[in-house]
Amino acid sequence: MPTKTAKKKPAKAAVKKSVKKKPTLKKNVVVVPRPARGSYNPDRPLKKNTLLLNQVRHFQEVEKKLPVEQRTGHNLKKIRTEAHAAEYIRKMTARLHPQGAEPSGVLRAGGR
To answer: Residue 5, exposed/middle/buried by CB under 10 A (0-12, 13-18, 19+)?
Structure first.
């Protein structure tokens, strides 16, 4: 004689309380090797460093589009050496990325 199986009632779904977790920021570590000696020469004419020359030109175009009060006021005709270019690039980067103007927690290659 076959036995009757009792029908089971579906179990109530467990109610999970929504716990809001604070977002955690993961620190990305990018290891940047030290540049070779002589790769930066502050007195080198800018025309001999096409990478910097093009970066300066790019920033000049970007600066033209900034409101007057946000421009660097840097005399662009006086950018003739790598040192001049580095200073201008530093100023423009600080204008475009104010949160990174003051480096914090930056580790140099080799932990120095």
So the answer is: exposed
Q: Judge whether 77 and 41 are in contact, CB under 8 Å.
A: no
Residue with tokens 């004689």: 1
Residue 43 clears pLDDT 90, i.e. is over it? yes
- Residue 27 domain-assigned? no
Show the domain range for 64. Answer: 46-98
Among 92, 97, 101, 98, residue whose Cα is nearest residue 64: 92
Could you tell me which residues come within 8 angstroms of residue 76 by beta carbon, excluding any fewer than 6 positions away?
A: 56, 60, 88
**Number of compact structural domains in the chain:** 1
pTM of the model: 0.59
- Predicted local confidence at residue 112, as pLDDT: 45
Answer yes or no: is pLDDT of 44 > 90: yes
